[in-house]
Each structure stands twice: as C-alpha cells, then as structure tokens.
Amino acid sequence: MHKIESKNVNFFYGETQALHDISLSMKENTVTALIGPSGCGKSTYLRLLNRMNDLIDNTRMEGSILIDQKDIYQKNTNVDDLRKNVGMVFQKPNPFPKTIYENVAYGLRVNGVEDKNIIEERVITSIEQVALWDEVKDKLKKSAFELSGGQQQRLCIARALAIQPSVLLMDEPTSALDPISTSKVEELVHELKKKYTIVIVTHNMQQAARVSDNTAFFYMGKLIECDKTKTIFTKPAIQQTEDYITGRFG
Amino acid sequence: MKTNFKQLKEKLIESVLMLSGAATSITVVLIVFFLFIEGAGVFNRKPIDDGYLLVVNATNKVKTLQPSQVKDVFDKKITNWNQLGGENRPIVLFRTSDITEYYTEEELGANFEHFPEKINELIQKQPGIIAFFSDKYKSDKFSGKELDIDKVKVWEFLSGEEWFPTAQPIAQMGVKPLIYGTLWVSFGAILLALPIGLAAAIYLSEIAQKRTRSLLKPLIELLAGIPSVVYGFFGLVVIVPLIQEMFHLPVGETGLAGSVVLAIMALPTIITISEDAMRNTPRAMKEASLALGASKWQTIYKVVMPYSASGITAGAILGIGRAIGETMAVLMVTGNAAVIPNTLLAPVRTIPATIAAELGEAPNGGLHYEALFALGCILFLITFGINMLVELVTNRKAHKKQ
Amino acid sequence: MKSQNKLARKKRISQNIAFGIFTAISYAIVALLFVILAFIVVKGIGVISWEFITAMPSNGMTEGGIYPAIIGTLCLVLASMIFAFPVGVFAAIYMNEYVKDGWIKKIIKQMTNNLAGVPSIVFGLFGMSLFVNKLGFGDSILAGGLTLGLLVLPVVIRTTEESLKAVDSTFRHASLGLGASKWQTTSKVVLPIAFPNIITGLILSIGRVSGETAPILFTVAAYFLPKLPSSIFDQAMALPYHLYVIATSGTNIEKSRAMAYGTALILIIIVLISNLLANALRKYYGKKVKMN
C-alpha cells in the first residue's frame, strides 16, 4: 500500500514543460530523497505534493497524485486540509515575525484549535520532538528571530509537526545551515521517520545516502531512476544516474 | 595643459551639480526663515488696528487691558470697571458711530470739523466711558487717557476660541477653531479612506491577477493626478448637494463634504504605499503559512498585514498629512465657518482654507497678514512633524528587517 | 471529520466574503474615477469649441472663452520648468552619480522629502513673502513660476533619480574603464540611457504644475485680465485659478457654471494626456531597454 502515488504527472510553467510523465510512489514511514542537478524539477515535483504550485500564476498540471488513495487534484479537494496533512519545511528557515511559541501555535490556530491547553500541549511536544525544548524553554515569548539559523529551521519543523501531518515535505532543509545544525536535522529525520512519511529534496549526495530509504534521481524534468538508496548509490541501473552520483556532472 | 583644463571643467561641473543638490535644502531653510519671520511679527503687535485708539476718562484707574478683556467689554460681558480692577462704575461704550446719540449734527459741524473736540469733551464728561476711534479724531487738546493693550500672546493665539482677525475694536485671533476644523476634516477623511484604501491594497497585492492589477493600478494612480481644484469643483456640484439632501441640512457645505473629497484624494496615497508594503512581505513567509493549512485570507490577516503594519501606518499618516495640507478642495466644499465644530454636518474651516481665503484681503505686512503667516507656521510644523513620524515608522521597519 | 468539514466551510465562507468585499471596493474606486471623469466630460464637452479655447472671457466671465487662462498656465508651466527641470536633474545627478553614501546624501534626501511634504498653500505664502515682496517681483509670472518650480523640484529629483538608478552600473564601469571622466560618463553614457525616463518625469511634473492653485493664488494669478501678459513681470490668469473663481465667486455663479465645466474638462484633459503620454513612453522604452 502506497502512501503517496503519482501517475503520469506533467507540469507546465506557461508554455515550458517542467515535468515529464513522472510516476513515483512512496510507502508509509519511509524517507524518499529526491536528487538531481539544479532545475531538474525535483523541487517542482515536491511542491506538487501539497499543491504549493497552485500559487504560481499560469501553471498547469496533468496526471494524478494520490495521497492515502485520494486524488489531491480533484476539484472538490480542500487545499487547506491537504496542506494540513502534508507539512512542509522550506529551504531557508522562515519563521514568522512572532514569538517562538506563537510560531508553533500558528498552524493550530488557523486550523480552528481554540482550547489553550491543547495548544500548549502540542506546542511543547512539537518542540520536544525536534529536540529544541532545552534550548528555548526559557524564551518561548521571545521573537523567533533571536534563534540561530539551525534553531530556526528546527523550529520550522516543529511548526509543521504541531498540526500533526502524516507526510512531511522537506525542500533542501539544510542548505542554509552549518554542518552541526545539519547533522542535528538529519538525526531528526531519522527519528521522525517512525511517525511520518518523509520526502526530502537535497543537493547533497551524502545526505541522501545517510537519511533516505529510497532515492529518486531527476534530470531535466524526467524521473530517470528510483530505487532503494543502497542500490542507487552502489549499482544504479542507468548510466546517467551513475554519472551524477559520482560527480561527473551536475 | 589640456588635462588641467579637463580637471577644471570637471570641478566646475561638480560644483554646479552640488549647488543644485543643495537647492531643496536651501528652499526648506528659506521657507522656515520667511514663514517664521513674517509669522512671528504677529506676537510683536497689539491686536488693534493701526491708527486706532482706546481711550478712557483721565480719572480712570485702569491703565492696561488684555485683548480678551477689551472684547468682553465691547461684547457687554463686562459692564463695570470694578471687574477690571477699577472703581465701581458702569462702563459706557463709545464707538465713532455713537456720536449722534450725544451731539446734534449742527454741533459737530457740516464737515464734522468739531468731531475731535466733541469726543474729547464727551470723554471728560463721562467717567465710565471707553471710547474707540481713529487717531485722526484725536483732538489737539486731548485730555483723556489712552489705554495700553497687551500684545498678542502665543498661548492666546493657540487657545483662543474665536477667529475674527478683522474684528473691531480688537482682532480676534484664536486659531483653535481652525486647528479643530483641520483635524476634524482630516481625520474624518482618513476614517473613510483607510478601510477602503486598505481593502483595495489587499486586493491589488494579494488577490488580483497580474493582468487585472496592471490594469487597475494606473487607473488608481490617475486619481492622484487630478488637480485638487477639480476635486473641489466636483465636490461642490455633486457631493455638497448630495450631503445636503441626504441629511436634510440647510447647507451642504460641511465638514463631511470636506472629509469625503479629501478621502477620495487620499486614496491613491494610502493604496500605493500599503500595497508596496504588502508586496514586500517575503514569499517564504506566505508559503510557510499556506503550507500549514492556513487559507489565503488567514495568511493575509495573520501574516501579511502584521508584517506590513509599519508600511500601512506610514501610508495612513502620510494620507493624514496630505489631507491636513490640502487647500483648494477643502476651501470649496467646507463652508468655511470659523467655529469650533461639534459635528461634521456643520460648516467648518481649516487652516489652509483660511490662508487661501483671507490672504488676498489682508494688507501687506499688517496684523492680519502676519497672523496668516503664523497659521502657515503652524501648518508647516504639523506637516513637518508628520513627515518625521513617517520617517521614524519606516526606519524602524527597516531596522527590524535587518 | 464532521467538525473538520465545518471548519473548512467556515474558512472558505469567511474568505469568500472578505475577498468579495475587497474586490468590490477596488472596482468601486475605479468606478468612482470614471464617474468623476464622465461627469466632467459629459457636462463640459458641449462647452468646448474653437471659440472656447481661443476667445477672451466676456460678459462677466459667463460667456466667451478661456484663452488667457490657457496662455497663462502655459507661461507658468514654462517658467517653472525652465527653473525646476535643470536644477532637479542636476540635483539627481549629484545624488546618484557623485556624492557618496554618507551624511550629505542623507541630509539632501531628508530635505527633499521634507520639501515634498510642505503643503502647497505654504509654498504660496513663501512665494509671496520672498518673490513678490522681498525680491520685488510683484504678482508676476516670474514669482508664480519660481514658486511652482520649487514645488515640483522634489518630483523632478525623485523621478530623475529613479531613472538614473535604473541604468546598469556596467555601462558606467565600461566608460570609466576607457578613461572617460565622471562627467563624460554621466553626460555621454548614463544620461542618454536614462533620458526617456527623465522625460517621463518631466511630463508628469508638467501635469502637476498645470493643476496647482494654492501656490499661485498670491504670486501671480489674476481674477480677470483684459489682455495677455506681455512679460514675465506681468500677472496672468491660470486655468485652475480660473476654475476656482468662476465656480465659487464669479459675478454670476449659475450663469458661469457651463464655463466652469469646460475649464475643468480642459484641466482633466491636460492631466490625462500627460499621464497617458508618460505611461506610453515608459512602456515603449521599457521594452526597448529590455530588448537590449
């Protein structure tokens, strides 16, 4: 049973086709890494999974994407609910100009949670989940901008977790972070795998090898190969994949 | 030699450019200088027309009077000298035109040649008299006592409740009704324009398609290009009658008419500045909100508006500034009654409208002229303060972003 | 699940209501613009004729034309621009090309902002005090033109500065790298590229100047003149002031109403033309620059 299942997905920015016939599936509680050179369409694909591309004018998508067997591109899909179920962490940490506490509580509030006790409990568990609690417990009322970049990114992950999604999309979540923060986030991904289905876009080969169960290689808007991470990194079926992984281009 | 010439030329050009660069600064300094020189003159004067006298009986103990006391005396609010520190004696008012009550035309002479001595005689006879007349009627054998009038005081100027600078015997120069009028009309305008402008700004920056936006924006900016006198005219022939009918008023020229016209005029400022501020909200911030399942509208009022709050504030303040300084449109539709307003449905008068309406009739360098310049100073200070406030608000935002 | 649906509905409904209101308001503002324009066009179009723009007012300004007011406004635009355009452009060049970031730039910028914020009636007071009285120009085109010139100076400076900023710095570096001096670079490379945008600013300033009333009230404007001004030391009539006069205090307000509509229409036409022209220029050259 697949958690996420995309079939023959094409995607266009105006006249330009950015994705060609992508069929890709992910199982529950796995980590899938999307790799490939810049502009290969991996981020575009990721942003299809929570319909973030809807925000860009003049775009068009064909094919179907199913999450929990439900086509998320049906007319009657409630996009807000979809995004609540499919959390997202962005390339650069992007906390709101609010307090640390309010950042995490935001998703709950916009989704109609009013009970203060529930909010507080969820805020605390989410921050604990990302192993940030000890660092911020004394300054929950301070601005989120006072945190370091790595802390901010973990806060953004906590923010996404607070609304209890089942899928977590991560768009190069460590590209703006230092090595120590990066390894903290990677550990976190390992931990979160137990509860969530994770899709992570990364530029960093080693990171893909370290954190993911499966790896999908994108090139020029096409899905070249997808397999167990081990297989991709040891004996890829396709020459292009090997060239990329061994650093011959990209 | 040639390079020398080239260098000289460069230097020369640079100094011309520098001088031009200094032009705005010089102008601001000159404006301040001339405005305040002329305006300060009013506080060095007595609020009584040049060449006129206030005279009492020589035995009267009162020597000086405050301008407000003189006014109360002539308004018959003060009727006895003991209220002014004199003896218990009723006050007898005398203006030049009252002379016929005391003397016949024969006594005054065919060409009023006996006028001066008769006035003098009257002042001698009436111990309680206070007489106001031109000094050309001052007799050679004048035996009355000229009253000393205090100069106009800054505080009285600011807090006086009556603006009647051509009143006799004492010019009433209280700017309070004008300041109130200005603020009422301006705040009324912002109250109308801010929600409307904000709604349009939200639409343009967050909701409208790119093409719609590029169509509507220039149209809204066109509103800013229409001359204020045309707005005034439109207000006069359309809005004024409309208001008169809607509220069943005797006249439609009211503070409300001014507010409505100013609101229309302030819209482009508010819309443009708030829209810019909203569009500056980082995309990442909006995406973060949407990715958490917030609706577009929730994202707008929970993320975009708080983020652009300082820009929106700046737009609103700037809008108020424009409204406060606006002259022609207001002059044409507010009815210009110099009374402290207690409703927007009555005629009011603003500072700029007062200057525009009265300066043409005020003799150059006279008391009235200087009083109008003093009004200009007040206006300048208010708008200057508003500019500084905007600067402060936007700078703080820049600071926060870092 | 049920409460989930309810929440989704609530969110959708409140969003629809809010967006509906915003959209309606935005279009209402545009509609208002059209109402104002249409009103004046409809009422004024019948008045406009060859006679209206070429004849002197007659019969207490209830008949005839507005020729002297048009000529007066033309003179004022010319006088103010002869002063404000070069000074404004030079100032912008100084700001953008010469002076380095620092307190001088900060002060000039602040003062320009302050000048832009001074109410137009204060310019009127200032012009009267300095040009009319102190310098002894009297009520004249010179005094009025200078006052208006100072008023639009910040506009000219700002638009020019923006045009200069839009010029890619690689052009400057290329020119300087070939041994050209700063002024040579500015005059031969930067200004020609920025020129169309600077002209756009000039056109917008002209639109602004021709509609200003308060600054000319006490510096130049005449209620009625039987003949045209013959030198810059003469008084002149002007369109905006003429409209003010015949709308509020003419000899016979009712009878001169038609003339007022006509005058307002002429003013609107000037503004429309200058805006359209500026927009067209901006678009035309915007494309051209991009193509390069």
Automatic annotation (TrEMBL), chain A:
Database matches in InterPro entries: AAA+_ATPase (IPR003593), ABC_transporter-like_ATP-bd (IPR003439), ABC_transporter-like_CS (IPR017871), P-loop_NTPase (IPR027417), PstB-like (IPR005670)
Chain ranges of the ABC transporter domain: 4-245
Pfam families (UniProt xref): ABC_tran
Molecular-function annotations in GO: ATP binding
Alphabetical list of CDD domains matching this protein: ABC_PstB_phosphate_transporter
Keyword terms: ATP-binding, Nucleotide-binding, Phosphate transport, Transport
UniProt name for this protein: Phosphate import ATP-binding protein PstB
UniProtKB/TrEMBL annotation, chain C:
Compartments, record wording: Cell membrane
TM region positions: 21-46, 66-94, 115-132, 138-157, 189-207, 258-281
UniProt-listed SUPFAM superfamilies: MetI-like
Membrane topology of this protein: Multi-pass membrane protein
Primary site of residence: membrane
Domain ABC transmembrane type-1: 70-278
Keywords: Cell membrane, Membrane, Transmembrane, Transmembrane helix, Transport
Entry-linked InterPro entries: MetI-like (IPR000515), MetI-like_sf (IPR035906), Phosphate_PstA (IPR005672)
This protein's record includes keyword Transmembrane helix: yes
Pfam family name, one: BPD_transp_1
Annotated family: Belongs to the binding-protein-dependent transport system permease family. CysTW subfamily.
Protein name, as recorded: Phosphate transport system permease protein PstA
